Amino acid sequence: MSARRGCQWFNFGVNVGTVVPVTDLRDATSRAVAALRAHGPMTRAELARRTGLPKSTVSGVTAALLANGTLEETGAAAAPVRPGDPRAGRGRGRPGTLLTLDARRGEVVGVEFGASHVRARVVDAGHGQGPGAVRRLPLAYGAGDALDATLDLVRELTARPGAAPLLGVGLALALGLGTYRPPVPTRPRGMRQGWEDLDLPAALADALGVPVVADNDANCAARAELLWGAARPYEDLVLVKLHAGVGGAVVIDRQVQTGRRGGAGEFGHVPVDPRGPLCRCGGRGCLEVYAGVPAVLAALAVQHGRLPTPREVLEGAAAGDPACRRALRDAGEATGQVAAWLCNALNPQAIVLTGALAGAGELLAGPVRESVARTALPLNADVDVVIGTLGRDAGPLGAGALALASVPV
Amino acid sequence: MSARRGCQWFNFGVNVGTVVPVTDLRDATSRAVAALRAHGPMTRAELARRTGLPKSTVSGVTAALLANGTLEETGAAAAPVRPGDPRAGRGRGRPGTLLTLDARRGEVVGVEFGASHVRARVVDAGHGQGPGAVRRLPLAYGAGDALDATLDLVRELTARPGAAPLLGVGLALALGLGTYRPPVPTRPRGMRQGWEDLDLPAALADALGVPVVADNDANCAARAELLWGAARPYEDLVLVKLHAGVGGAVVIDRQVQTGRRGGAGEFGHVPVDPRGPLCRCGGRGCLEVYAGVPAVLAALAVQHGRLPTPREVLEGAAAGDPACRRALRDAGEATGQVAAWLCNALNPQAIVLTGALAGAGELLAGPVRESVARTALPLNADVDVVIGTLGRDAGPLGAGALALASVPV
Description:
Two copies of one chain form a homodimer. In chain A, 37% of the residues lie in helices and 18% in strands. The first copy, chain A, is an alpha/beta fold. The first copy, chain A, has three domains: 22-73, Orthogonal Bundle (Arc Repressor Mutant, subunit A); 108-219 and 394-406, ATPase, nucleotide binding domain (Nucleotidyltransferase, domain 5, 2-Layer Sandwich), CATH 3.30.420.40; 232-389, 2-Layer Sandwich (Nucleotidyltransferase, domain 5), CATH 3.30.420. The relative contact order of chain A is 0.12.
């Protein structure tokens, strides 16, 4: 009742019909297509919310795009709904026809550069997951090898029977600490150490003749989990990638937030204990020195008589090995402490865990959840802690999603 | 060159003129007015960017709003520009005619509830700062006293000669740890301890007959600094309020981010040292136990033979007292540690310091800046550390800005 007075006190008397020119419908069309590219299939209601366009305009624009084959209607929206969360119902999760960009228009390839491999996945223009391929490389391979392997993978995937035209390539790159390149469109936000002399996206774009875009690996993983994985029911979340390095992503309103110069999400270098062990960043007791894969392996070196492999740790933990379980619990509790502080700072709906350690499932997520519940303010402790569902495909798929979102409309 | 291929591959062939209905211009008008209410005077270019409306539509809509007196054109944009920052020039800072909502349409009153006072400021519909007033109250006054004082202040301010019609009231409330109310429009995100039994916004709305909205005090301070103060040149920033409690706000793209349930920005409860002293939140070594006003006063109790007042500490430091300076330096260094981790997580352009301790100026900001430079990743350490310019008016002015932004269009 208190909100009644004061309504429409500003826009009365505007005879919009005679004064205002017809809105640029080409612009509305571009915005609708851009939203579908960035966020994947959605209902008309969600498209109106996402673009800020009036429902009548969305209705007209989508009718035209359906008529000319740019869009197609697919089955009812089936994204999981977070129980009891009123925001989760906004256009997602409720039955409703989904608008999908025509998959036959083309496809992109997403590529992630791992420690000793390059992994690629095809994503079609309708956000369908296509085939993938991997190249094994020596540990700490150079940028030239990365270029050759990527060209090889992209050519192999796009030469397959039935491949749609290649529209672009996306790269998921690990941030090389201390190295920085400015965020121009074809440059990644960070490069591996020793890769500074090759502008990998530009070299690939020259060789392939399509746009090539790049982002941090954790940001790519977040894009993939939002579109296809564990992050689908959420608007606001934090992703933590527990891998050789520890990184992450901040997602607000389903947008990955990169910060002023692309440096956001570096949760690996938030300290768990400022008097703890030295970190490669020059800090002390950073999350990475407790929850990175090397830390977990090192913690088990005495028990194993050598550094175990990540797979040995995950399999050991799954089989009930107490030391492996404890190492993962310790990593999870450290992660939960930093996650709790992120909850106090950002109040997200969910913490999504990815990277090699996330393969431990609840053996990792459980301790993270308990640690968050113990550490965050009560106001901010109501947060879901979930494991990403895309595993090692999150990076390449998310790089593909980035490419789809970035191809100019 | 690599971005050429693939352009416009989706929207060719859409004969928008015959298929799509005329965009709802009433909606465009509402969006333009809402953006001006939320973000204050801006150029047409900024209005187009902020609303996502095509420039031609903005041009038409603003012509109509100028013709009917809803808008007026004011002098060239004069917001400070951050040197060397390409983002700072986006519509702000460059010469350009500003569009301002007609100040005579009405005004709002912003009210902040301090520890022993209630402070109010008038803000007119054109975002002009009006007069203010204060009521002193006993320490830890109750919600009933707060209601009476607020009604008294609002009636005094609106009864002055030449006052425009009252459109709404905004409240800046300190978060009572552990108490939470769901974020419905007229309810604050948190209430002081002991205030749970009175729905202050609803009671005020009933008594005054206008909409009453509320938010956390630090979020209000951020709104004010964005509109009128130190945050004007920035898009992405973190505000830290060092007061009796320590809180803050996250601003991305000039929007205060409140998180899932309004709990974002609680930087006071991010630990500086997890083995440090107990905090009222149940944590250990939280920023608040190092950089809250009570911590700074307690650190100087031996030197003063009693707890000094905040003013004594600031004046002592300004006069060169080494103990006062060291107490502020310690608070600043702790703040800088948490600020550095926020830089790693969010990569903002600026850290804005407000609250009583910010009265120390560079004696506080200097140590914060040094601590950030030492602690943040190099990628994220390029951040401005500035003192808010609005002092104790930031809360009430920001509450007024919230009210202006919230009155229904």
